[in-house]
Task: structure prediction
Amino acid sequence: MSRQSNRTTDSKKMNSELFTLTYGALVTQLCKDYENDEEVNKQLDKMGYNIGVRLIEDFLARSSVGRCQDFRETADVIAKVAFKMYLGITPSVTNWSPAGDEFSLILESNPLVDFVELPDNHNSLVYSNLLCGVLRGALEMVQMAVDVKFAQDSLRGDNVTEIRMKFIKRIEENLPAGDE
Amino acid sequence: MFLYILPTGSVAASVVRKSRSVYIVKFANPNKGRKIDMADDVLFEFLHMEIVSHIYKDQASVGGMDKDRATCVSTLEGMGFRVGQGLIERFTKDSPSFKDDLDVMKFICKDFWINVFRKQIDNLRTNHQGTYVLQDNKFSLLTQISSGKQYLEDAPKYLAYSCGLVRGALSNLGMDCVVTADVSVMPSCKFQVVIQKI
Result:
């Protein structure tokens, strides 16, 4: 009967493999559909954006985190709550710019790239670019325009994976037409 | 020690050991306290929805080709097939081999379905001649869509990937088959597996 408990921890692992494998199948399909890596990166970012605008609602519903006071708090919530909740990892927040509007998330491990190796002819493919889109879309829904990109990628030989996030501006609430 | 199946059909439990070696099974309420676990099921659902939307949106624009609905379905099914093959390998590497086809189908209905869709198949029927019908009354990829009749026509788009998953899983267990899915009342659906005898 103790096998039952093994089964449930296995099921958590199995589910993460389902997500990882599905993501891999998606990237493979995109590489087949589009000739160049830049186009694939763009598509991944767009898809990530669409996911992000919905994921933020799920996140806010599950985590009951209140409004963040500043960008530093946002960074902490992203790293310690959101990443932990969805991907089971806690990246560290470092490399703050002097103006406090840019920081890096350092991921020691990236669950998306389990079982993945990049072949040689895809040197400019940013495999996990979906994450950038997700972060961008989610933050846009809480009135923050940000620029997100990968600075280092463990799939391409770097030691760690680094995501650089830059705050661009606060998005004003859209006024109803007629108030312009 | 026993394990309850929650009424929603999801099995989520952890074992808490008390000092006198009495095992108590604690249940993770699916609606709260999931913060520390990886919320994979949600991630997969979002990703799946986006993949379906992307494949269909892309219809007209990829290389000028006129992708029709059948191509979209087969693209999705092909993706599911590869993933299903991979998943079943990981999942059964330590289990003993199956006695016969029915045993395999029962495995798919219970363990495989629980791991992928967080619940068991509700009803398995067979004609004992190679055709199986798996009925899921609350298919997790359809529950997000409103259950009236208006989206019935679009529902099969969301089943193509899962058909591929099942076909891939069975293929790596040595059973070549054709898997189709059918929705008559949302969110319940039926998967039909027809084993191909060479």
